[in-house]
Design brief:
This protein is α+β, with helices and mostly antiparallel strands. The chain has one domain: Thrombin, subunit H (Beta Barrel). 26% of the residues lie in helices and 37% in strands. The protein contains 2 helices and 6 strands; from the N terminus they run ββββββαα. It has a 6-stranded antiparallel beta barrel. Helix 1 packs across helix 2. The N and C termini lie far apart (31 Å). The relative contact order is 0.16.
Length: 140
């Protein structure tokens, strides 16, 4: 059971193990302050360390995480990772910002019928709302 509220998302993330040269681009299924879950074709061993990147936020979100669980489901794997530095307020702020961007992307589709890529949604949201974005360390 997660200790943090999970926010369902469908965003592209980049994941790399220590022995990989390049990141794999995968789809995250949910995010929380403590970690995230994603789908992939490869099995990850619990306890292994991975590097997670969300390149379309500004600045790019990069963090090391520990694989907490890996479950095979319908021909793929669901993997849950926990961030190693739980006290990083910036990490919590970025996770929350990513959730806002994903909600913005859905809202634009529902209200305007435009389909935005994750990068386009991030650029528009940052341009419109980032200056007034209030994270956990600086409530307005």
């Amino acid at each position: 059971m997660s200790r943090f509220d999970r926010h369902p998302v469908n965003i592209l993330i980049e994941v790399k193990t220590i022995d990989q040269l390049n990141h794999d681009t995968l789809s995250a299924s949910n995010l929380s302050i403590g970690g995230l879950a994603f789908r992939c074709d490869s099995k990850f061993e619990p306890g292994n360390i991975v590097e997670i990147r969300i390149p379309f936020v500004s600045p790019p979100f990069e963090v090391e995480a520990r694989v907490a669980w890996c479950t095979e489901r319908e021909g793929h794997f669901e993997v849950g990772v926990e961030f190693l530095n739980q006290d990083d307020a910036f990490m919590a702020r970025m996770v929350e910002q990513v959730c806002h961007i994903e909600n913005y992307k859905k809202e634009i589709y529902q209200t305007e019928g435009r389909i935005l890529s994750p990068e386009e949604a991030a650029a528009e949201w940052i341009n419109k709302y980032a200056a007034g974005f209030s994270g956990p360390e600086d409530p307005q």
